[in-house]
Design a protein that fits this description.
Protein name: Type I restriction-modification enzyme R subunit
Organism: Klebsiella pneumoniae
Number of strands: 0
Strand content: under 5%
Pfam families: EcoEI_R_C
Largest sheet: none
GO molecular function: catalytic activity; DNA binding
Number of helices: 4
Helix content: 55-70%
Length: about 80
């Protein structure tokens, strides 16, 4: 997935979050990345607070949720869910 240039449409901050979420998915499964609360845990805590991560990487919570939906769609090769 990383080789398909999926992340290039996102800012550097968002790419860092999404890459870390992808690593978490590989380690622990989809439940780990579906909860926004994961952004309060290591290693995300070093990227900022939950609101800071959302704002700097995705603009707002809807942008974050859309990015997660697209990430899951890329993982499973499904069409993105509508917001």
């Amino acid at each position: 997935m990383r080789k398909r240039n999926y992340f290039t449409k996102y800012s550097d901050a968002a790419q860092a979050v999404l890459n870390t979420l992808l690593d978490k998915y590989a380690d622990a499964g989809v439940q780990e990345i579906e909860s926004i609360q994961v952004l309060k845990l290591k290693p995300f805590d070093s990227m900022g607070t939950l609101p800071e991560i959302i704002k700097s990487g995705f603009g707002d919570r809807n942008g974050y949720n859309q990015a997660i939906s697209e990430l899951e769609s890329e993982i499973y090769h499904l069409p993105p869910r509508s917001a």
